[in-house]
Write a structure and sequence with these properties.
The protein is α/β, with parallel strands linked by helices and about 140 residues long. The protein has a single domain, classed as 3-Layer(aba) Sandwich (Rossmann fold). Helices cover about 35% and strands about 20% of the residues.
């Protein structure tokens, strides 16, 4: 699919319809500092962002607060990003949820291991400028 600058890629044709006045993004990462830093950046850019430190916390969060996009780390202890994506897709069975893999793993590895079952809508390599990740999300919700 289309490539965005700095190792961010759109992987699906899904277009996320933002259901609230402000786009909502859930950042799921086992590194709380990294998750908070990204959520803070997104908040400064006009996005309502929250964090979760793994699959269980993400599932608890979406019970009462449904995001438009989930930015999801892959390499997490317990349930990794592949299992978390699958759990989120099962728990929120809506075509309106965008999920972006945000990881240090290369895109070929994520595609191969994901085997199409996890339906990531995009990929962005960690270390990429957050403005590129935001551009990828904006591409999903337009």
């Amino acid at each position: 699919m289309s490539r965005l600058p700095s190792s961010c890629q759109t992987w699906s044709a899904r277009k996320v319809r933002v259901l609230n006045a402000i786009p909502r993004v859930l950042v799921v990462d086992d590194n709380p500092g990294a998750a908070e830093a990204l959520a803070t950046y997104l908040s400064l850019e006009g996005v309502e962002a929250r964090t979760a430190n793994g699959c269980s916390e993400a599932l608890r969060c979406v019970r009462d607060w449904v995001p438009d996009v989930v930015v999801l780390d892959i390499m997490m202890p317990g349930r990794d990003g592949f299992e978390t994506a699958q759990a989120l897709r099962s728990y929120l069975p809506t075509p309106n949820l965008g999920i972006v893999a945000f990881t240090s793993l290369d895109d070929d590895h994520v595609r191969e291991k994901g085997d199409g079952r996890h339906n990531f809508d995009g990929y962005c390599r960690k270390g990429t400028a957050p403005v590129a990740l935001l551009a990828l999300m904006q591409n999903l919700w337009r």
